Amino acid sequence: MPTATVSLRCRDIALAALGSLLPPGTAASTDEARFLHEALAQAGGGLWPQQLTQALALPAAADEALARATALLNLSQVEILAVALTAAVEDDAVTGRMLAWLQAPTAGARPTLALLARALAPLQQQPDDAQQAEADTLYALAFGPAVRSGLLLLDDEGRPLCERSLRVAAPIAAALAGVSADWLGSRVRAVQAEAALAESVPALRAAADRWAVSLAATPQATLAMRSASAAEARGMAAAIIERLGAQPAWFDDQLPAGADVWLMLSGRVPVFALQAAPGELAAVPSLPGYDGPVLVTTGLDGGICREGAAVADWRIPAPDPATRRALWRAALGDTELAAAAAARYRAGVAQISEHARLAQLLAAGQPSLQTIAEAASMTSAGRALEALAQALPEVVPDGALVVNETVSAELERALQRCAQRERLHAGLGEAARTRACDGVRMLFTGLSGTGKSLAGQWLAARLGLPIYRVDLAAMLSKWIGDTEKNLAELLGRAEHADVVLLFDEADTLFGKRTEIATANDRFANAQTNYLLQRIESHAGIVVLTSNSRNRFDPAFVRRLDFIIDFSAPDAQARRALWQAHLGEASSCDQQQLNRLAALADLAGGNIRNAVLAAAASAQAGGRRLSFDDIAAGVRGEYRKLGRTAPPGL
User: Fold this and answer.
1) Beta bridge partner(s), residue 469
2) What percent of the chain has pLDDT above 90?
3) Which end is more exposed in the chain, N or C (fewer Cβ atoms within 10 Å of the end residue's Cβ)?
4) 3-state DSSP call for residue 321?
5) C-beta of residue 381 within 8 angstroms of C-beta of residue 229
6) Cβ contacts of residue 225 below 8 Å, gap of 6+?
7) Count of other CB atoms within 10 angstroms of residue 255
8) Is the preceding peptide bond at 105 cis, omega within 30 degrees of 0?
């Protein structure tokens, strides 16, 4: 009897085992029977254990991946042939038809456990009882390492075990055939552009080189890359994996059964996108069959852990001013404009690219700082904030903000601090540089209508940055930990988008801690503690408004860079407010303006309401805005406030 050669494939041996099920003397009257006879003849009989040993000792090119899986999972001979045959169904229609013919009329084109048990039982160290040998083979397949690892999948749940069929996931079948294919259901990402952005920054290129060396030298190495920009984190992951001579496989927080074996067979490096709330740990999915490096992209908060392995934690740095200028220059082709944009916007690598593309589009190829400012409010980073904050697109000019000299001087100081925040600590002593943060936090206090929110919008307009008003209803949650999670997400996105955040009525979030009398007090205080710490480490600009500074925790006051009190306007300020709101639309003379300023003791917000009410009345009457219209509007504001209007009005 001829023996097998080393070129014999494992699937050929499995097919020959199926051919042995044909009754002696069965004629090759059908294509399926003829196919099995040919397989049996090619294998040369029933010396399958020896043939299989030889085939795996010097595997044919088509069996190299199966040989690696055998060594990794310690597969039995029965499982090796079951995997080879089950994978053959995925790329060979003839094999599928032959199996359907053997299993007719109940089963389909994938092999059942009963069929495999009958065909492969001779490979087992079997008792004399043939029926018992088949049962042993069936259970060895159903509960062996091939099924436990996900290399083989059991279908038809609910049917008797012997009638359940086996299949191989399509990506694993491709890997066994030596074909590179993405795992079905994984996030297949086109990250070439994002990787190119990472490669354009010298510091990030050096970091990619360094991390690639470390990951290659450390068993089960795991790297968590933190960034408020998912695109930048993905770009760095792709750059590192390219240096490892591999391809990435993108997953979220779940790993399908068998994907770890596929990673080993395909040579892919997994990249998980995990998110953890403050104080929480996000676990890397278990990878029992994979011992290569693992990368994780995540946000700025929470922790990442992996069972049995240490996790290196790296926060992707923002580009320095010189790098930003180079990126803007490459994107815009204008050295002077690039320098101005780099000084104004603390954007990341991906954000600069998006800003520049949008600015080019808005300006028809001739961008300016104005079009870049418009683009900044339209980028995806800004739109990501809209679930928790509302964009305030109105630009507040200098003439629209009327405040006294003290407040004006304080706002100018705040403006200087914001404009120089990135280079502020350079050259100062060690104590000033320790725990340095580029963020600026300011509190505007004063009565309602005194211009606190307007001043925040004015500040953003002078800086050329978008401003977002925080939606406190979306931020606050009755569930423990959700408020902190929402704030962490908001601040992380705001840092990446480089926007100004406006917290109106901020004492709702940052109020005083209380004495602990109940469990609710304990959780409320823990929430306040987190908010105080997180706002201090925020690298962006935050404006908080409140009617009274006394409502804030004393520990929070220390964390503020500016506290500006907006007092009620005096008569001179009120006259300027009337003039700023009325413009040239009224017929009031100087004496009447003085009379309004002297008698109507109203804040700027009330003056605005009175002017709008007067304008509506005048337009309805088809006349120019008059003193009587304004006086009527003032009387309406006094009624709203529950006060008596001055007799002169």
Assistant:
1) 390, 502
2) 17
3) N
4) helix
5) yes
6) 233, 236, 237, 295, 296, 297, 298, 314, 316
7) 22
8) yes
Can you tell me which residue has the tokens 């029992």? 288
Say if residue 2's pLDDT is above 50: no
**Which residue from 142, 84, 153 is spatially nearest to 113, judged by alpha carbons?**
142
Q: How far apart are CA 288 and CA 83, in angstroms?
A: 19
**What does the DSSP assignment read for 411-450?**
HHHHHHHHHTTTTTTTTS-HHHHTT----EEEEEEESTTS
Joined together, the tokens standing for residue 432 give 């000033």
For residue 285, the 8-state DSSP code is P
How far is Cα of residue 115 from the mean position of the Cα atoms in its chain?
A: 47
* Span 430-446, average pLDDT: 79
Alpha carbon 430 to chain centroid, angstroms: 35
Which helix (H) or strand (E) segment is 529 a member of?
helix 519-537
Please tell me the distance from the alpha carbon of residue 229 to that of residue 297, in angstroms, as a whole number. 10
Nearest in space to 583 (alpha carbons), one of 611, 616, 618, 610: 611
Cβ–Cβ < 8 Å for 176, 151: no
Would you say the C-alpha torsion 84, 85, 90, 95 has a positive or negative sign?
positive
* Tokens representing residue 344 in the block: 């104004």
Cβ neighbours around 270 below 10 Å, total: 26
Mention every residue, 6+ apart, whose C-beta is less than 8 A from residue 456: 444, 467, 500, 502, 543, 545
Q: Does residue 387 surpass a pLDDT of 80?
A: no
Could you tell me which of 124, 111, 126, 143 has the C-alpha nearest to residue 49? 124
Amino acid at 307: E
Closest CA to 31 of 92, 91, 110, 101: 101
pLDDT digits 0-9 by tens, 24-71? 666 566 666 676 767 666 655 555 566 666 666 666 777 888 888 888
Number of Cα atoms under 13 Å in the Cβ half of residue 285: 19
Which amino acid type is present at position 82? A
Picking from 373, 86, 413, the residue whose alpha carbon sits closest to that of residue 258 is 86
Alpha carbon 64 to its chain centroid, in Å, reads 37
Token couple for 243: 């240096």
Instruction: Please state the separation of Cα 190 from the chain's center in Å.
Output: 15
For tokens 């469990």, name the residue: 519
Residue in this structure with the two tokens 């907006």, named with its chain if needed: 566
272 Cβ neighbours under 8 A, 6+ residues apart: 251, 252, 253, 284, 285, 294, 295, 296, 297
d(CA 251, CA 260): 12
Closest-CA residue to 61 (of 10, 128, 116, 2): 10
> Of 389, 426, 640, which Cα lies nearest the Cα of 501?
389
With beta carbons less than 8 A apart as the criterion, state whether 299 and 489 touch. yes
DSSP 388: T
DSSP tag of 21: T
Taking a C-beta distance cutoff of 8 angstroms, is the pair 578, 585 a contact? Answer: no
Query: Residue 171 in contact with residue 262, Cβ under 8 Å?
Result: yes
Instruction: Give pLDDT, residue 512.
Output: 57
Closest CA to 32 of 91, 109, 90: 109
Q: Name the class of domain 398-425+436-559.
A: alpha beta
DSSP code for 9: -
CB 176 within 8 A of CB 325: no
- Tokens 């002696």 -> residue: 24
DSSP for 34-76, please give it: HHHHHHHHHHTSS-HHHHHHHHHHS--GGGHHHHHHHHHHT--
Token pair recorded at residue 644: 């008596």
Q: Average of pLDDT values for 485-513?
A: 78
CATH class as words, domain 571-641: mainly alpha
Amino acid at position 498, single letter: D
